[in-house]
């Protein structure tokens, strides 16, 4: 009797799906080679070549390493010395090129077999899961005699080559069953079709391009299902409602070792991604250790633990790797167990346990108790209600039924987190988001919900891969040049600070990367400090210490200079957005002139602060575990001078006047700025006959207040209802108002400067000194 197909041996996934495939292209001119990929020293093999969508009257053959193999004008290859080389063939007329990898084996062993010492990487490969003929991945079909075409792609060399079109057939499908126990051989990965692969289409239909050798791995390490398959099944079944059970619904298994789906995250959409949520993109590690074949030895498939130890001292095997927790996540307790020091692996494990508990309570509340087992189909009826699957329960005849759409989605994500055992390294944050969202979804449907208030989904600030700052460009998968300096990891930033202009970056990022701010890694982590800060008008300044590093993204994108230039050019006055978190511009005051400074007025310069005037004086990287949040370093950095406050927002100190005119001289400075900004918005509404409203969450922020109630409703906050017309005075005032809103710490960064801007804007609009307000 056939054994059930369980987890495949080894760390490399072998999947069957035809829906997830390598890039398929429309016909185009190309050369296609055929023939063996291995030969013994002194023996010969014959290669052939075909020209497609073009014409050739002959071919030129060339060996890239004649000391290993030679080739004659007919394509006959002769082994010369042990090793691996590439045979290149060029069409005489078309000038098209193709390459064919050949492995030359040194000689025969005494028993007539291949001498492993003479075959490149033979010993490394022979001990790998790829070479294990007894593994379930290659022996599951032994009783049938053949691997079916639907599974041959990743369970045989012949099927893999057939799928990529390396055998001369059309790519994207396997045309015939393949032999059993046909392991991953040299020619599997070194066939010319595999070697030239640069793009992968995932089961979700999403395509990732620009890949290198790692594409060969992802062909099989992508899973055979995606979240959209669940939606399709629900739609086909005609099920209405998240909690409606139907016999037409069943468990969808992503399949085994889907490392590529985890790694590429929302680019692959392998998990079930809830419609109302935003998900991280591809996880970028560090240079030279960012691809499958850079972290895993391509022949043994083992992780290169010796290289990992450079940045992760003491990590010598996977159990040590479970303890890894990078500094950016050390303030986050994702699974809510009050442990922020455990490895990220254990955070995922904790969240997975919580999800399983929610799944089982959901089933129990509907009189359909279920349990999870390690054999197909994985989910079974928990007949004794003890929460575990015993051998009598974990049988196909006891498979769980009564699936609802909500339960399908949660079970799918639970399985994804289990069948990729390296998920904690491939893309921990994506898995955390999937587990978190699945748990929260189930919790909303429980009559006795769990307390999930301690669960954490996203990282703060610079490392929040689900934020708009990181994900705004996902629809195009490119970050335009005008935005890439601060929204594309290290690539766009490094280019901008050198040249003062942006470049198109062909991949979105999950926030800042280590290499954005650091020149190197363990043990020094030297900080990269640009030579200057670029102001919005193209001029540069050199700020003290390491502040150029922060200021190039926190200086703003509009200023007095850009506004004056636009107004002097004529045409219709338009609002200019200072952009988000322009803290360095606020702090520098009139030295940077990020605010609109009015003639015949004096403005505060750079902030002076006893605790230090550099960005990192208050936003301390090390003390805050790189969250850069004031509260995470408050006890060590701020309490000495601000012992009477428990948070930065309560600070008042030396500013004693009633600046916003509300009669309260004891409220925090943050409230004073909010009050002054409110006075300015009132003045702006006054000069527009109450025709203007503001919504700080929706671009372009200022809209027509059609009902004149002072707030922007959802129907008003649309681009088609953007406020117009702006006058020059209104452009200047709106800019200063936006600055006070988009720098939420303006009251701390430079209260005097932002207060002066708000006061002067009210005065300019109304033509008189603001009643009861005080100019700082």
Question: What does this 3D model show about the protein?
Answer:
By secondary structure, this protein is of the alpha+beta class. It folds into four domains: about 30-115, Immunoglobulin-like, CATH 2.60.40.1080; about 135-280 and about 290-300, no CATH class; about 305-460, no CATH class; about 530-765, no CATH class. Helices cover about 30% and strands about 10% of the residues. The strands form eight sheets. A four-stranded mixed β-sheet has the order 3-10-9-6. Helix 13 (about 345-365) packs parallel to helix 15 and helix 25 (about 670-685) packs parallel to helix 27. The N and C termini lie far apart (about 85 Å).
Spell out the key features of this protein:
single chain, about 775 residues, alpha+beta, Immunoglobulin-like, four-stranded mixed sheet, three-stranded antiparallel sheet, 20 strands, globular, disordered N terminus
The amount of beta strand, in percent, is: 5-15%
Helix content: 25-40%
Number of domains: 4
Structural class: alpha+beta
Separate helix tally: 27
Order of strands, main sheet, comes to 3-10-9-6
* Rg over CA atoms: 31 Å
- For the secondary structure, the number of strands is 20
How far apart lie the N and C ends? Answer: 86 Å
From the spread of the alpha carbons, the general shape counts as: globular
Biggest sheet statistics: 4 strands, mixed
Mean pLDDT: 90
Poorly predicted spans:
1-26
InterPro entries: Big_2 (IPR003343), Invasin/intimin_cell_adhesion (IPR008964), Multihaem_cyt_sf (IPR036280)
Keywords: Signal
Pfam families: Big_2
Organism: Corallococcus exiguus
